């Protein structure tokens, strides 16, 4: 599954029955003992906390609401936090009352967090948060209230977040909350000139680190923003902030400035910053308009000691190179040893091929023939997508029998990308349509899903070429839910598109198909560690059983079954995530069950371990580790562990690297 959320609305009765019948109603017991004699038991020895967590897992608002009135603050807090995952707006009035009236600060803080997670934009919710901001005596709670204001903001209410009450002007905790509130609003496309100006004001020291990070992240994430007036402040932060994550985000933000000094600043960061994530971000911020003054720094970055930086430099040339001969990239690619960097530069060579395009295409095909890694072969197919003349060759590779599934996945993606090229011959449009129908009928999840997605791409305008949906419905009937959810949904959306019907809601398996295994949870002590043994070295996690009991139990069970042994890291995005655990090895595989999302009060800091999903409540066996803070994932993907040791190993991981085994430490 991919780290891209897909919204969903409800579940038709027929699909509910289907999921109940095909979900994992039974499962093998975990085979790994995890509780040392002297370990600290987790909080779920308390039966009431198990009941609250079960109600959360079942999305049972009716069962949870009474716990908000319990005399024990512990239970009120846990019930409030449960609604951060349930996200039922029917609970908003009760949460609002809890926020305004509960005597315990930790309960009010949980209520504020849960209210933010509901993203309720109703005027009553916004007024309740604003009222609490001025009445709240606890600094930490005020910080949560401000962030919740951002999650629930409208364009009209944003001004209340931008202007802090005078009494909070020097409160550093309020600065942190305000900065994150501005960030959460910006993620939803809600911002203003005043909000941008306030974010810039929060960049310099002595503003606290978390406020600076939120402010820099806000400026880096807002699209279509002209930051030219703020170039001096961004440059200063990108060059001098003591934290790499702030410098990296400000480097990205500099790419939104047209100031003449920016290219030299980015080139300097790419060459000299001590942290690879800043160097990488500086290259990523470079664009076609600054190609000439930065290209020498990008050439140098191809030899960076960190392969993620080198790959980003190759991607820069692929995306932005102009007036360069294809032979230049071919020559430079032949001298590279990192296969993904080399394949990406070969794509740049083919894209800019000119008279040498045929020679370059043949060179890529020859390398494909000698490559031993299916992932490298996949990337070479991806490179060939730059040249429509390679269509027949790529199609044959995609559908050749007995190849690793990864090759078919990359191949179909390459064929679709090739069709999107401006020079794709119109006489081949009918051939492409037949290829897509062949892909849908192939029986391979990734090929089916990718082909179906292309059919419904409005830019390709293929509706007239598919007057019947029978081949799609036949392919869908061969899938098993919830295991094949992504492919099923892609086919269903395409059926809806061709029939001019509203999109069918994505089916979500009911909790009854895979309830939390409390026997396993209660054997996992606080601080339980897991070591992921890779060919590059070990990475040690601390499992967060108290925050994500269902996810941790599933992970422990899968580890005990040896599920992850010899699996690959199939997805590595520079300065974002390394993702593994897919049984297919291409991101389209799953277990036979889905989990419900567990959105605890945690953040995606460096080394956070999250569960991949196709949207809320569709988590399964795949997980990812973040290279750096990735706050746009907060509250959208379950965090079930945190890296304790091995970030140096994580920075070296490449697509195709293997998970030899995972060991639960005694």
From TrEMBL:
<dbReference type="InterPro" id="IPR044666">
    <property type="entry name" value="Cyclophilin_A-like"/>
</dbReference>
<feature type="signal peptide">
    <location>
        <begin position="1"/>
        <end position="25"/>
    </location>
</feature>
<keyword id="KW-0697">Rotamase</keyword>
<keyword id="KW-0413">Isomerase</keyword>
<protein>
    <recommendedName>
        <fullName>peptidylprolyl isomerase</fullName>
        <ecNumber>5.2.1.8</ecNumber>
    </recommendedName>
</protein>
<dbReference type="InterPro" id="IPR011989">
    <property type="entry name" value="ARM-like"/>
</dbReference>
<dbReference type="InterPro" id="IPR029000">
    <property type="entry name" value="Cyclophilin-like_dom_sf"/>
</dbReference>
<dbReference type="Pfam" id="PF00160">
    <property type="entry name" value="Pro_isomerase"/>
</dbReference>
<dbReference type="Pfam" id="PF13646">
    <property type="entry name" value="HEAT_2"/>
</dbReference>
<keyword id="KW-0732">Signal</keyword>
<dbReference type="InterPro" id="IPR002130">
    <property type="entry name" value="Cyclophilin-type_PPIase_dom"/>
</dbReference>
<feature type="domain" description="PPIase cyclophilin-type">
    <location>
        <begin position="537"/>
        <end position="666"/>
    </location>
</feature>
<dbReference type="InterPro" id="IPR004155">
    <property type="entry name" value="PBS_lyase_HEAT"/>
</dbReference>
<dbReference type="InterPro" id="IPR016024">
    <property type="entry name" value="ARM-type_fold"/>
</dbReference>
<dbReference type="GO" id="GO:0016853">
    <property type="term" value="F:isomerase activity"/>
</dbReference>
């Amino acid at each position: 599954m991919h780290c891209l959320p897909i919204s969903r609305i409800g579940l038709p009765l027929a699909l509910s029955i289907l999921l109940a019948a095909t979900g994992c109603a039974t499962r093998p017991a975990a085979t790994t003992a995890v509780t040392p004699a002297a370990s600290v038991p987790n909080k779920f020895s308390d039966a009431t906390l198990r009941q609250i967590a079960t109600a959360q897992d079942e999305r049972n608002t009716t069962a949870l609401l009474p716990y908000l009135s319990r005399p024990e603050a512990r239970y009120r807090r846990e019930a409030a936090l449960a609604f951060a995952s349930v996200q039922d707006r029917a609970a908003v009035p009760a949460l609002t009352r809890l926020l305004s009236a509960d005597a315990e600060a930790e309960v009010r803080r949980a209520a504020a967090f849960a209210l933010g997670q509901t993203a309720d934009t109703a005027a009553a919710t916004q007024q309740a948060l604003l009222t609490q901001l001025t009445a709240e005596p606890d600094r930490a709670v005020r910080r949560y209230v401000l962030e919740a204001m951002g999650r629930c903001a409208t364009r009209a209410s944003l001004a209340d977040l931008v202007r802090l009450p005078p009494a909070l002007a020097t409160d550093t905790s309020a600065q942190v909350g305000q900065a994150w509130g501005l960030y959460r609003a910006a993620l939803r496309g809600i911002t203003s000139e005043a909000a941008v100006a306030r974010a810039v004001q929060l960049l310099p020291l002595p503003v606290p680190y978390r406020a600076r990070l939120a402010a820099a992240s806000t400026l880096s994430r807002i699209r279509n923003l002209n930051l030219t007036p703020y170039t001096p402040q961004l440059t200063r932060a990108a060059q001098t902030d003591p934290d790499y994550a702030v410098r990296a985000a400000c480097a990205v933000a500099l790419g939104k400035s047209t100031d003449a000094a920016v290219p030299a600043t980015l080139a300097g960061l790419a060459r000299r910053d001590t942290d690879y994530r800043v160097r990488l971000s500086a290259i990523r911020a470079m664009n076609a308009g600054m190609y000439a003054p930065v290209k020498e720094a990008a050439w140098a970055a191809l030899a960076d000691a960190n392969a993620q930086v080198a790959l980003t430099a190759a991607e820069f040339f692929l995306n932005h190179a102009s007036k360069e001969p294809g032979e230049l990239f071919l020559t430079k690619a032949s001298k590279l040893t990192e296969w993904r960097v080399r394949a990406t530069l070969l794509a740049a060579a083919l894209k800019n091929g000119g008279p040498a395009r045929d020679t370059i295409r043949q060179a890529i095909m020859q390398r494909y023939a000698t490559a031993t890694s299916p992932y490298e072969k996949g990337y070479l197919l991806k490179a060939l997508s730059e040249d429509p003349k390679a269509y027949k060759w790529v199609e044959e590779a995609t559908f050749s029998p007995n190849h690793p599934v990864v090759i078919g996945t990359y191949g179909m993606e390459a064929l679709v990308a090739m069709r999107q090229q401006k020079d794709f011959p119109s006489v081949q449009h009918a051939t492409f349509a037949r290829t897509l129908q062949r892909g849908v009928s192939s029986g391979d999840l990734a090929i089916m899903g990718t082909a179906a997605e292309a059919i419904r791409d409005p830019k390709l305008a293929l509706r007239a070429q598919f007057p019947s949906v029978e081949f799609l419905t036949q392919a869908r009937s061969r899938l098993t839910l919830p295991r094949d959810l992504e492919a099923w949904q892609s086919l269903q959306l395409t059926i809806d598109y061709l029939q001019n019907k509203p999109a069918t809601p994505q089916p979500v398996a009911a909790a009854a198909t895979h309830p939390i295994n409390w026997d396993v949870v209660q054997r996992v002590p606080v601080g339980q560690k897991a070591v992921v043994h890779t060919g590059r070295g070990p990475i040690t996690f601390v499992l967060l059983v108290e925050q994500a009991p269902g996810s941790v139990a599933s992970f422990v069970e899968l580890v005990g079954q040896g599920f992850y042994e010899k699996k690959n890291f199939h997805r590595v995005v520079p300065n974002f995530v390394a993702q593994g655990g897919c049984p297919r090895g291409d991101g389209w595989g799953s277990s036979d069950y889905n989990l419900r999302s567990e959105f605890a009060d945690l953040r995606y800091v460096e080394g956070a371990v999250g569960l991949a999903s196709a949207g809320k409540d569709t988590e399964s066996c795949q997980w990812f580790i973040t290279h750096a803070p990735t706050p746009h994932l907060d509250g959208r993907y379950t965090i079930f562990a945190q890296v304790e040791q091995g970030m140096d190993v994580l920075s070296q991981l490449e697509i195709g690297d293997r998970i030899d085994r995972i060991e639960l430490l005694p």
